[in-house]
């Protein structure tokens, strides 16, 4: 875990373990900007490289937190809806443009966004709230939310754990090559998602022109 030393998230994992994973992922899923995926991946890598944590429990904590947090976000969105978000959404980085983007995506793709939004950086924290705001059927939401939470936690958690186990056996140039691949791959993915978000925001504005109303 030496590559994580000095980062606040490393201290959270070292001191609070599964509880840190659960709390951070739950808050992110409920709509609070938090590094949920980062703490899941980091803790799974930590488990693989040190053996101090059980990856099954990490994945279980992340999946349960994702499902619980999303349900909270869904019912908040469904109960108080658009007026609340129009007034206070900017406090959680959910500005007018992202609200309109959510409406557009739900209009075009319906409940599918609940599942795939879990894997999308720009929607992971907001998909459940927007599902409630747009009054997606509760049973459909719960189905796709459960499937998405389990799939996301399992794929990210077990994948990172496998990488963590390999780190202990990688030295010298091979280790540096892998590190460079991960770093530049992460940058490329971030740039791709940023461009994708901007394109969707333009399409959302064209489909739903003007200000949103209550």
TrEMBL record:
Transmembrane regions: 12-32, 44-68, 141-162, 174-193
Domain of life: Bacteria
Pfam family, one: VTT_dom
Keywords carried by this UniProt record: Cell membrane, Membrane, Transmembrane, Transmembrane helix
Subcellular location: Cell membrane
VTT domain mapped to chain residues: 35-157
Membrane topology: Multi-pass membrane protein
GO cellular component: plasma membrane
Protein name as annotated: SNARE associated golgi family protein
Organism of derivation: Methylorubrum populi
